[in-house]
Design a protein that fits this description.
alpha/beta; Phosphoenolpyruvate Carboxykinase, domain 1; Phosphoenolpyruvate Carboxykinase, domain 3; Phosphoenolpyruvate Carboxykinase, domain 2; 3 domains; nine-stranded mixed sheet; 17 helices; 32 strands; globular; binds guanosine-5'-triphosphate; binds sulfopyruvate; binds manganese (II) ion
């Protein structure tokens, strides 16, 4: 091992955490098999049926450790102002005084795993190296699927390359000792007492969004909570789209969309580049290019079926880790929505016997599958492309049962930035807390923007200044409009293809529009959605702007901006005023 700073850091952590032994992860098959054997024998994992789910396992988390904990996630800049009003802040020395002692001797009796990992394709100028140190073999197994792990990262690092430090310990999984702390000025993440998803797989939200967003601001690129997809028209023209939806609001599903038969017959094709995170940078031609820094999917299980998202199900057939789903008697997995008829009996996510009559959920609403991206039938050839893919359109969207139409287009980049800044969505089970509450979630980055939100909006505007006419067009969608009985009025999933087609046409300067105060809406008569058999009232709701609802919306936007005070960018303020006068 030749990297002195890395060696020094590992030694320093060893002295603090006092593990029984140190294991450098190489990401090999034999290494992971040994870890899986260990975790099966100590009860951490259950091996699934070898025929139906080859090399796949089920994990059950602690029942108090089932989602990201936004309330215990901290951004530790020296100045509170740099973290901004939407982040929890603690002064770095103060946070160190709280969190450092928790790590003292915390790995006694445990193995310390050193995980070198690469975010992004090998050889890409956009890729970055992280090192996660953890005492959880479950975290190692997830990181091996989610990132390019082992020698590939050390090769990229060389003797003096930069890396993000991530220190993680399971601790005792005590929620009161749980801290997810970010130190942007030290390139350091410290995570204690949670093994779940974004709390513990430090390459994901902690590095690839929170710290990377800070780097992006400094270096002139963007780290976003976005899927990336490629879409090819019958004429053979390929476009790429990024979409930012809040957690559990449809990124994985849209990224893996299977077009309805009539679109397939006509020659449309959709390919997956990424399902959660995009790093975007200007290319030599002045356009924005995106890479997916991840190597796997940490996807929401409930609602995933052969009808809604066959590509996700096929991705997680083998070599997959399931967390907090139900276990069937034949050693297969089940979750709400997988099949119409539930199994007669199962073991639920807590490990208790379950039957459909019990009334409880068999799988946790935030149960997940960790699956290699390369196994996705729709994975794009560009998934490993070091240059990334040029982006034609950016879509924002959230869960809104009212107010927001199915789709609309912004007037320009500044207005598009405004649509992102004013996104609101009903909260999901992806983070601890009350589900269903409407909250502002700008650019789907509320929990992930690593600095002051208003500075982040200014960064979006600055990127637009730089990119000029080369910037992607910006759209807003809402798959989640409900009727008075609480039922979704839009069929969603594969049928979202109707909306993607209109977006691609708009990018080509085609497609019929109605100009409204909030932006350009499609004319439903030109959308060829007759065969969906929608109720005419629902069509009206999906394709129109209700003046009264939007008056309330704009009031809520005005209130929301108060907390940013003088920091609110001029371009955002101008868009608010313009919207008000148009309404
Ligand atoms: P994170 O991984 O948390 O960032 O979430 P995500 O944005 O990738 O969300 P995902 O695609 O996993 O979807 C979350 C939930 O929304 C699942 O239960 C889906 O079945 C459901 N969903 C996704 N797309 C649609 C849609 O078009 N309509 C409806 N009604 N539900 C959808
Ligand atoms: C999300 O919550 O947006 C996720 C899952 O994608 S986690 O990795 O836990 O952040
Ligand atoms: Mn996410």
């Amino acid at each position: 091992m030749a990297h002195q700073a890395l060696e020094d850091w590992v030694q320093e952590v060893t002295q603090i955490t006092t593990p029984d032994s140190i294991h450098w992860c190489d990401g090999s098959e034999s290494e992971i098999n040994t870890l899986y054997e260990l975790m099966v024998s100590d009860g951490t994992l259950t091996k699934l049926d070898d025929h139906k789910h080859p090399d796949s396992y089920l994990a059950r988390s602690d029942i108090n450790d089932v989602a990201r904990v936004e309330g215990r996630t901290f951004i530790c800049f020296a100045q509170k102002e740099d973290a901004g009003p939407t982040n929890n802040w603690m002064e770095p020395t103060e946070m160190h005084a709280v969190i450092d002692p928790l790590f003292e001797e915390c790995m006694q009796g445990r193995v310390m795993y050193v995980i070198p990992y690469l975010m992004g394709p090998a050889g890409s100028a956009m890729s970055k190296v992280g090192i996660e140190i953890t005492d959880s073999p479950y975290v190692v197994a997830n990181m091996r699927i989610m990132t390019r792990m082992g020698q590939i990262a050390l090769d990229e690092l060389g003797e003096d390359g930069e890396f993000v430090k991530g220190l993680h310990s399971t601790g005792q999984l005590d929620p009161d000792q749980r801290y997810i702390s970010h130190f942007p000025d030290e390139n350091l993440i410290m995570s204690f007492s949670s093994n779940y998803g974004g709390n513990a797989l430090l390459g994901k939200k902690c590095f690839a969004l929170r710290l990377a967003s800070v780097l992006g601001k400094r270096e002139g690129w963007m780290a976003e909570h976005m899927l990336i997809l490629g879409i090819t028209s019958p004429e053979g023209k390929k476009s790429h789209i990024c979409a930012a939806f809040p957690s559990a609001c449809g990124k994985t599903n849209l990224a893996m969309l299977v077009p309805p038969q009539e679109f397939l017959d006509a020659g449309w094709k959709v390919e997956t580049v990424g399902d959660d995170i995009a790093w975007l940078k200007f290319g030599p031609d002045g356009r924005l290019y995106a890479i997916n820094p991840e190597y796997g999917f940490f996807g929401v299980a409930p609602g995933t079926s052969m009808e809604t998202n066959p590509n996700a199900l096929l991705s997680c057939r083998a070599n997959t880790l399931f967390t907090n789903v139900a276990l069937c008697p034949d050693n297969t997995v089940w979750w709400e929505g997988l099949t119409e008829a539930p199994p007669d009996s199962a073991i639920d996510w807590k490990g208790n016997p379950w039957t459909p009559e019990s009334g409880d959920k068999a799988a946790h609403p935030n149960s997940r599958f960790t699956a290699p991206a390369g196994q996705c039938p729709s994975i794009s050839d560009d998934f490993e492309n070091p240059a990334g893919v040029p982006i034609d359109a950016i879509i924002f969207g959230g869960r809104r049962s009212t107010t927001t139409p199915l789709v609309y287009e912004s007037y320009n980049w500044q207005h598009g930035t405004y649509l992102g800044a004013t996104m609101t969505s009903e909260k999901t089970a992806a983070a601890a807390g009350k589900v269903g509450e409407l909250r502002h979630d700008p650019m789907a980055m509320l929990p992930f923007c690593g600095y002051h939100m208003a500075d982040y909006w200014q960064h979006w505007l600055d990127m637009g200044e730089r990119g000029g006419d080369n910037m992607p067009r910006v759209f807003h969608v809402n798959w989640f409009r409900k009727d008075s009985e609480g039922k979704f009025v839009w069929p969603g999933f594969g049928d979202n293809m109707h909306v993607l087609k209109w977006i691609v046409e708009r990018c080509d300067g085609k497609g019929q529009v109605n100009e409204t105060p909030i932006g350009y809406l499609p004319d439903p008569a030109t959308m060829q959605i007759d065969e969906l058999g929608l109720d005419p009232n629902d069509v009206k709701v999906l394709f129109s702007v209700d003046a009264e609802e939007w008056q309330e919306e704009v009031e809520a936007q005005t209130d929301y901006f108060q907390m940013f005070g003088e920091k609110l960018p001029e371009g955002i303020r101008a868009e608010l005023d313009a919207l008000k006068s148009r309404l």
